């Protein structure tokens, strides 16, 4: 773990409220793995005080990419960054997805900005010759992007694009297309989506990893500010920043 001063190269708008920030960091680019995250100081002043966590979205050469949507002050600062601004970034943090497991087909399930970690995941899976199917859901069309993803199936709550319903319902509607012994599900999105995905995968006995989210402070296990309930008898709570953000779905209670 280290702090890098990273020059912003661009901030691009991918959809109504989806941004892609590109910054240069040879150190982070060469050390971070799919599913890991960075804790970013979004402003040069001390406001907001706390860093904000963001998944690594993609790495190309020395450049790192973050995909984000604007929620509050911190993400608004990020969206307003200009080429040449410098970001103070703590990285690499957390664990990543286990992409090496024994499966033939990776089933990616992304809810809204939960798509953020999957471009880098997709790139790694393609290098390993895994088949990849992606399900992406949003409230409406403006929550969706195809950046860095492949073989996409969309769902929207309002039916404005793709399947009319949520992304877990979409997965359920397609599940007979798969040999369940040969797939592994990788999910990221809001908690209700993760909960539904966990329940479905456990009911069908499908391998499943979930990238979880919660408010964070330190980002590396010191402040104890990011507990998540576990299914372990000996350790009731795990830390999202240190033990996650990616967990086997069977290990956590969402
Ligand atoms: C490991 C990890 C990886 C993440 N990766 C990404 C990413 O790649 N792209 C991205 O856009 N976001 C990501 N997030 C969420 C992101 O960190 C928050 O959206 C961000 O911190 C909000 O900061 P803010 O100052 O803009 O909003 P705040 O002012 O802090 O919050 C504004 C509103 O959003 C709510 N909020 C804040 N954080 C979250 C959250 N995590 N989940 C749900 N609601 C929240 C608050 O309750 C409040 O209502 C990630 C979070 C974690 C823990
Ligand atoms: S954010 Fe501090 S322990 Fe997880």
Could you outline the blueprint of secondary structure elements for this entry?
Blueprint: E1 2-15, E2 18-24, H1 26-31, E3 37-41, E4 52-55, E5 58-60, E6 63-68, H2 73-79, E7 86-93, E8 105-111, H3 118-127, E9 131-138, E10 152-156, E11 163-164, H4 167-174, E12 183-188, H5 191-204, E13 207-211, E14 227-229, E15 237-239, E16 246-248
Parallel strand pairs: 8-9, 8-12, 9-10, 10-11, 12-13
Antiparallel strand pairs: 1-2, 1-7, 2-6, 3-4, 3-7, 5-6, 13-16, 14-15
FE2/S2 (inorganic) cluster binds next to loops.
Distance between the termini: 27 Å
Q: How many structural domains in the coordinates?
A: 3
Q: Report the average pLDDT across residues.
A: 96
Q: Shape, please?
A: globular
Determine the number of helices (DSSP H or I, runs of at least 4 residues). 5
CATH fold group of the largest domain: Rossmann fold
CATH architecture of the largest domain: 3-Layer(aba) Sandwich
By CATH reckoning, the class of the largest domain would read Alpha Beta
| Coarse structural class | alpha/beta
Q: What series of H and E elements makes up the topology?
A: EEHEEEEHEEHEEEHEHEEEE
| Low-pLDDT windows of residues | none
Ligand identities: flavin-adenine dinucleotide, FE2/S2 (inorganic) cluster
Helix fraction? 10-25%
CATH superfamily of the largest domain: Nucleotide-binding domain of ferredoxin-NADP reductase (FNR) module
If you compute it from the alpha carbons, what radius of gyration comes out, rounded to the nearest whole angstrom?
17 Å
Strand order in the largest sheet: 4-3-7-1-2-6-5
Biggest sheet, open or closed, and with what strands and sense? 7 strands, antiparallel
Strand content: 35-45%
Give a count of the beta strands, DSSP E runs of length 2 or more: 16
């Amino acid at each position: 773990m280290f702090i890098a001063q990273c020059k912003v190269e661009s901030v691009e708008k991918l959809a109504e409220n989806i941004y892609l920030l590109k910054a240069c960091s040879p150190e982070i680019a060469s050390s971070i793995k799919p599913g890991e995250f960075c804790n970013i100081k979004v402003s040069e002043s001390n406001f907001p005080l706390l860093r904000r966590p963001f998944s690594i979205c993609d790495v190309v050469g020395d450049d790192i990419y973050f995909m984000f949507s604007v929620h509050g002050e911190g993400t608004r600062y990020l969206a307003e960054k200009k080429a040449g601004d410098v970001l103070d970034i703590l990285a690499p943090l957390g664990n990543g997805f286990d992409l090496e497991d024994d499966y033939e087909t990776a089933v990616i399930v992304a809810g809204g900005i939960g798509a953020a970690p999957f471009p880098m995941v997709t790139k790694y899976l393609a290098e390993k010759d895994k088949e990849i199917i992606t399900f992406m859901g949003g409230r409406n069309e403006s929550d969706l992007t195809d950046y860095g993803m492949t073989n996409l199936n969309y769902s929207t709550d309002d039916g404005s694009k793709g399947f009319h319903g949520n992304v877990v319902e979409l997965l359920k509607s397609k599940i007979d297309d798969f040999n369940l012994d040969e797939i592994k599900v990788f999910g990221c999105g809001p908690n209700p989506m993760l909960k539904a995905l966990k329940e479905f995968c456990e009911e069908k006995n499908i391998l499943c990893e979930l990238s979880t989210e919660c408010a964070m402070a330190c980002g590396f296990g010191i402040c104890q500010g990011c507990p998540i309930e576990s299914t372990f008898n000996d350790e009731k709570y795990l830390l999202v920043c240190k033990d996650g953000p990616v967990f086997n779905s069977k290990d956590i209670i969402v």
